[in-house]
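tokens incoming
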């Protein structure tokens, strides 16, 4: 499938602030095919062509910053990370505000089967449709990675507590454009998830 290069700048927020309580260790630093999950996600983000790219840390900072060394990524620490994902979204949007992006793409570090091609497809769909939100579809879920047009930034900023972007996506219902991402059903939250991931072939 041929995808279009967005005419307008798209910023990318890579959210990695959580404490990985269900995993029992920092999942961002788990090994995955010769790199960590965070480094893999960061390289995927860079390959998307988005700019700027902001890594939002929380429970860990210096360890995560070291993992993105050499990549065109700005890392910021969210001091309010324990209040939930909404605070990381706010921190990330504040960090990219000066570049006045036309849209922002939000992704996580625990979806290692995500590809640059899927991110390109999200951006192309948003460019083609001018939809307020374009989200990945997996199982019965519409969620991140997802791209949000500038018009919905105020609503992202109003999210509170544990409410991530999924709540806003759900609120838009049928107005959300969707891009199939069946591999998104595997995210890495528990040791069992990680074991399942390691059985998947590369590529």
């Amino acid at each position: 499938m041929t995808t279009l290069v967005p005419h307008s700048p798209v910023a990318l927020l890579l959210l990695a602030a959580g404490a990985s309580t269900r995993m029992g260790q920092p999942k961002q630093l788990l090994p995955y095919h010769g790199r960590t999950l965070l480094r893999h996600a960061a390289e995927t983000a860079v390959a998307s062509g988005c700019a700027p790219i902001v890594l939002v840390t929380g429970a860990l900072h210096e360890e995560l910053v070291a993992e993105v060394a050499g990549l065109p990524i700005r890392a910021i620490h969210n001091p309010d990370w324990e209040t939930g994902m909404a605070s990381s979204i706010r921190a990330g949007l504040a960090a990219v505000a000066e570049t006045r992006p036309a849209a922002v793409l939000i992704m996580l570090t625990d979806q290692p089967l995500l590809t640059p091609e899927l991110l390109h497809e999200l951006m192309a769909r948003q460019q083609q449709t001018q939809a307020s939100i374009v989200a990945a579809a997996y199982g019965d879920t519409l969620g991140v990675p997802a791209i949000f047009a500038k018009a919905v930034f105020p609503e992202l900023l109003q999210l509170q507590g544990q409410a991530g972007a999924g709540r806003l996506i759900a609120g838009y219902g049928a107005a959300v454009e969707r891009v199939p991402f069946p591999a998104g059903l595997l995210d890495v939250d528990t040791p069992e998830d990680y074991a399942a991931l390691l059985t998947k072939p590369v590529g």
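note: The CA atoms of residues 15 and 56 lie 5 Å apart.
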